[in-house]
């Protein structure tokens, strides 16, 4: 069922071919937004995903395979979106990668990639989206910053640094747009059972000789007091709220949805 909150608006969700990004895209499409998908995956599956979302929510969809670590490809993505839809009204910076190692062992190329995709890409997308948003005096920038944008975890130096930086970028963008109809906010999820987190579960199961379900429970027990994963659908609902008029004075917030993680 499609609602009317975002009819006539276009949303770009980076990293939206699976996981949190797909949940965000579906939630925004359900409100009537046309969707620009971005991410990697099988081309046939992505084409089917576009068709399914377009049919289910009666919106237009498009896809661009920009590598979010490359400024030139991000610029091409925005040129594509402008040509197809006129510009981006809702920007969700969701693309992210992870690597776990102690600081002294952290591969330099992994550090550079994580910073590029998890942080620098959001600068490039924001700088390219803002002129259109300012011209219309309406826009929403939503940065997926993780609980690791608020607290640290051992072994995740690049990811934590990038996500803390993303919270900082969110605050500055919010201040620079404070007297306009454009808002910028960050959502900080706890553990969501995405392919990225499933890799951590698999690694823990192998290392500790646990079943997959036991490894999931152990992972959640370490950080997330609720003992439950956050879902992409719950995060999508929060994104929809941030797009609504009710949230027009929510500016520069780092909103954690984390089962109590950072309350400890």
From TrEMBL:
<dbReference type="InterPro" id="IPR020904">
    <property type="entry name" value="Sc_DH/Rdtase_CS"/>
</dbReference>
<comment type="similarity">
    <text>Belongs to the short-chain dehydrogenases/reductases (SDR) family.</text>
</comment>
<dbReference type="InterPro" id="IPR002347">
    <property type="entry name" value="SDR_fam"/>
</dbReference>
<dbReference type="InterPro" id="IPR050259">
    <property type="entry name" value="SDR"/>
</dbReference>
<dbReference type="Pfam" id="PF00106">
    <property type="entry name" value="adh_short"/>
</dbReference>
<protein>
    <submittedName>
        <fullName>3-hydroxybutyrate dehydrogenase</fullName>
    </submittedName>
</protein>
<dbReference type="InterPro" id="IPR011294">
    <property type="entry name" value="3-OHbutyrate_DH"/>
</dbReference>
<dbReference type="GO" id="GO:0003858">
    <property type="term" value="F:3-hydroxybutyrate dehydrogenase activity"/>
</dbReference>
<dbReference type="GO" id="GO:0032787">
    <property type="term" value="P:monocarboxylic acid metabolic process"/>
</dbReference>
<dbReference type="InterPro" id="IPR036291">
    <property type="entry name" value="NAD(P)-bd_dom_sf"/>
</dbReference>
């Amino acid at each position: 069922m499609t609602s009317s909150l975002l009819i006539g608006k276009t949303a770009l969700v980076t990293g939206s071919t699976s996981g949190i990004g797909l949940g965000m895209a579906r939630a925004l499409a359900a409100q009537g937004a046309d969707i620009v998908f971005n991410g990697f995956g099988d081309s046939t599956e992505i084409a089917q995903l576009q068709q399914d979302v377009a049919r289910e929510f009666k919106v237009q969809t498009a896809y661009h395979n920009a590598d979010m670590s490359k400024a030139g490809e991000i610029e091409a993505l925005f040129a594509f979106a402008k040509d197809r839809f006129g510009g981006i009204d809702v920007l969700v910076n969701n693309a992210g990668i992870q690597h776990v190692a102690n600081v002294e062992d952290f591969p330099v190329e992994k550090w550079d990639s994580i910073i590029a995709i998890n942080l620098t890409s959001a600068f490039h997308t924001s700088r390219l989206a803002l002129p259109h948003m300012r011209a219309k005096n309406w826009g929403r920038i939503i940065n997926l910053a993780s609980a690791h944008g608020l607290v640290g975890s051992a072994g995740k130096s690049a990811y934590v640094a990038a996500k803390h930086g993303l919270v900082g970028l969110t605050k500055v963008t919010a201040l620079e747009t404070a007297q306009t109809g454009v808002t910028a906010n960050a959502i900080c999820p706890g553990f969501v059972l995405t392919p990225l987190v499933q890799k951590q579960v698999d690694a823990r199961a192998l290392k500790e000789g646990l079943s997959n379900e036991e490894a999931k429970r152990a992972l959640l027990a370490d950080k997330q007091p609720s003992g439950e994963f956050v879902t992409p659908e719950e995060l999508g609902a929060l994104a929809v709220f941030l797009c609504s008029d009710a949230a027009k004075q929510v500016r520069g917030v780092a909103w954690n949805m984390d089962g109590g993680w950072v309350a400890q």
